[in-house]
Amino acid sequence: MSKIRHALNTRRADDFAQWYQEVISAADMAEESGVRGCMVIKPWGYGVWERVQRLLDARIKATGHDNCYFPIFIPLSNFEREASHVEGFAKEMAVVTHHRLIADGEGGLVPDPEAKLEEPLVVRPTSETIIGDAMARWVQSWRDLPLKLNQWANVVRWEMRTRMFLRTSEFLWQEGHTAHQNAEEAKEHTLRMLEVYRACAEEDIAMPVIAGEKPEHERFPGAVETWSIEAMMQDGKALQAGTSHYLGTNFAEAAGIRYQDREGGQQLCHTTSWGVSTRLVGGMIMVHGDDDGLRVPPKLAPWQVVILPLLRDDERDAALLEYCEGLRAALAGASAFGEPVRVLLDDKPGKAAAKRWDWVRKGAPVIVEVGGRDMEDGVVSLLRRDRLWGENAKPAFETPTRDDAAQGIPTLLEEIQQALFAEARDRREANITRGIESMDALKDFFASNGRYPGWVEVQWAKPTGAALEKVVEDLKALKLTVRNVPIGSAPADGACLFTGEPAVERILVGRAY
Questions:
Q1: Which domains, ranges and CATH numbers included, belong to the chain?
Q2: Fewer Cβ close by (within 10 Å): the C or N end of the chain?
Q3: pTM (2 decimals)?
Q4: pLDDT tens-place string over residues 432-482
Q5: How far is the CA of 268 from the CAs of 250, 252, 331, in angstroms?
């Protein structure tokens, strides 16, 4: 059997980190910007993010939220009101101190000493404090509750070590903020939005996740409870793909978010916040990419079908383009996942093979090539990106008639979506290990299971204080973290692996991004 010649230079199994960077470049997703820690998201990458936005925004609005927008600049005093919150973000804050530049006399510019701000402004790392101020103005009575807001925005957190889409100093996200009458309603909403994130990850991104509560030391600064969805990348590392926080009355007390109850008394609101970011795009790459580039799930693909006419630059091209346009029009009039099929007729100049491999690397779900002989025979050559190679180590083209392709491709897109999810789910389940009951066994497992060992589920006693600090330090020495306590996991039935105390739940442990 001949050997497959993959489209990328680096294999996932050889160097996953380098492979990831190569996919981003080869798929034309993003590039370095020249500004430290920031990236340029290119049209194909931004098109994927737009699809995430559209699908998730519909889910958020279906749960009764309204979109809004708040300033990118937040007065420093807003953060100082909530001590644990500012402590959690202090090392990552970018701060504006002046409002004007002047010439330095040497051809450069410097901040004007006369233009120093009375109060420094923090470039938004998150918006709990400034949205809390608005909530305090907008909420007066129990009739104003619940208040459900969502914002699509950019944020800045000054990261020391960055990686495109996964950890950048500036990134795009949505952040939801709600206010409720009591803890029961707020906690229920925290979990409702966690479920929204799970559904988006699994049904739209085809990325299986495990939803659960984060341990005490992994909570969002100022939160009472933090819940997350955790996804396993192909190297076995965890990616925290989204979080939902119950904030209790901490932020309400700091911002003065009170309401008059039905009896006329004044009560503090219970608030929540929750968010996902362009990190989801990085997760999609690392869950679905292969040694030939990206594989974009059809629900997220800016173009679900790309038609490539094999043009010869002669008089036959007009008939071939007309034949291809017939397929494009038929597909554009069809629907998949309740939306019109997104189909591109790529008639740009270029060699057919080069154009095909460009779209393979970008991960277009279905690529259709059409040559003169195909037209004469009334067929097309169809390639599924999720099943690229045949047994002969050549691209696995199928040759349906043009009409059959037009009728079958919408269903095929749904099959590809399901196949990508099933592949990722099965891989994750095969790489979660259970039954490890001691620190020595945990050390041995991660030391002896190669570069990509996956996760371990262990018994957990919910240690706190000094006992929790010791667990964190012991895991840090092994380059491990606890991820979350999976919702619906089997009940604890033994001793905590870390403390020896009776366990109360099970928790996932692994390496993480």
A1: 29-288 (3.30.930.10), 305-428 (3.40.50.800), 434-510 (3.30.110.30)
A2: N
A3: 0.95
A4: 999 999 999 999 999 998 889 999 999 999 999 999 999 999 999 999 999
A5: 9, 6, 54
